[in-house]
Amino acid sequence: MAKRRIAFYLMTIPALVLFFVFHTFPAIRGIYYSFTNWDGFSDSFDFVGFKNYANIFKDENVLNSYLFTFKYAIVVTILINVLSLLIALGLNAKIKFKNFFRGVYFLPNILSVLIVGFIFNYIFANVLPVLGSKLGSPFLSSNILGNENWAWIGIVIVGVWQGIAFNTILYLAGLQTIPKDLYEASSLDGASRWREFWSITFPLLASFFTINMVLAMKGALMVFDQIVALTGGGPGRATQSISLLIYTGGFQGGEFAYQSANAVIYFIVIIVISVLQLKFLQKREMEM
After folding, report:
1. Do residues 223 and 69 make contact, with C-beta atoms less than 8 angstroms apart?
2. How many CB atoms lie within 10 A of CB 99?
3. Rounded to 5, what percent of the chain is helix, strand, coil?
4. Mean pLDDT per 10-residue section of the chain, whose length is 288 residues
5. 212, 163 in Cβ contact below 8 A?
6. What's the pLDDT at 123?
7. Numbers of helices and strands, H then E, in the chain
8. Which of 143, 163, 137 is closest to 218 using CA atoms?
9. Contact call for residues 159 and 226 (beta carbons, < 8 A)
10. Phi, psi (degrees; rounded to nearest 5) at 36
C-alpha cells in the first residue's frame, strides 16, 4: 500500500502544482488586482476597493457586451441542441455509410476555431456576395459581417456549425443506451414515431440533454475566437462579447484592474447560470 500511495502522489502532486501555478494562482492574482487601479504596465498601483465593480454597472459598453453575449448564447444553445439531436437521431437510424457520416459530422470539432472563423470570413466577404450578385439578391450581395444588425447572425452560424459536432456525439452515446425492446414494444402497441420520441427517446435522453445544454451555454457565453476571426468585435462594437472586451480592455487598453473586476463578475454570472440550469433541468429529469 505504501508503494501504491507513493505512485499516487507522484502522479497527482505534479498535476496539482501545475494547475495551481498556471490556473489557480493567476486567478487569485486577478481577483487581487481587481481591487486596484493597475493598468497592467506600471510599477505601482493604488487600492481602490470596490470602485471598479461599481463602475462596471455604470459602463454602457460593458452592459452592451453582456446583452450581445446573452443574446448570442441563448440562440446558439437552442440551435445547437435542436440540430444536434436531430442529426443524432438520423445517424442512429439504420442507414448506409453510417460510420462515414458520423466522422463527417464530427470533423468540425477537431478543426481550429480560428481557422474555421477565417474560412467563414472569406465565404461571407467574398463567396456569398458574388453568388448574391449573380442571383440578383441584394441581401446576399452584401457582407453581413459589415452590417451592425446582421453581423451577429454570421457569428451564430459559425458557432452552431462547429458546436453541433460535440453535442451530436453525446446524443449518439445516449441513444445507444436506450434498450431496443422499448421501441419494439411501442411499435406493437401502435405508437407513432412522434409518440416514441416524446415517451421513450427524449425522457431517456434527459440526462444527456442536461449536460449538452449546460456545456453549450457555457461555451457560448465564453465566445471569443469566432468573433476575433470574423468581426473583431465590429462593426463598431456591435459584436463585442464580454470575453473579447476583457481581453482588449485589459491587455490593450490599459484597463487591467478594471477588466479583472469584470472577469470576476462574469465568472460569478457563469457559475450562477450553470447552477440554475442544472437545478431546473435535473428537476425536469425527475418529472419525466
Report:
1. yes
2. 8
3. 80, 0, 20
4. 76 90 91 90 87 92 94 95 91 79 80 89 90 83 88 93 91 88 81 83 88 92 92 90 92 89 94 90 72
5. no
6. 92
7. 16, 0
8. 163
9. yes
10. -125, -175
- Return the C-alpha cell found at 116: 474555421
User: Which residue is listed with cell 480560428?
Assistant: 114
**Cα angle for residues 79, 82, 85 (degrees, 5° grid):** 135
Q: Which residues have C-beta within 8 Å of that of residue 230, sequence separation ≥ 6?
A: 117, 120, 121, 124, 145, 151, 154, 155, 158, 239
pLDDT score of 206 = 87
Alpha-carbon torsion (184, 185, 190, 192), positive or negative: negative
d(CA 205, CA 200): 9
Q: In sequence order, what are the beta bridge partners of 36? A: 47
235: left (phi over 0), alpha (psi -120 to 50) or beta: beta
Q: How far apart are CA 179 and CA 174, in angstroms?
A: 11
CA distance 64 to 148: 13
* C-alpha–C-alpha distance, residues 275 and 288, integer Å: 20
C-alpha cell at 38: 493597475
Residue pair 265/65 in contact by the 8 Å Cβ criterion: no
In this prediction the pTM is 0.89
Cα of 251 vs its chain's centroid, Å: 23
Q: How many residues are listed for the chain in this entry?
A: 288
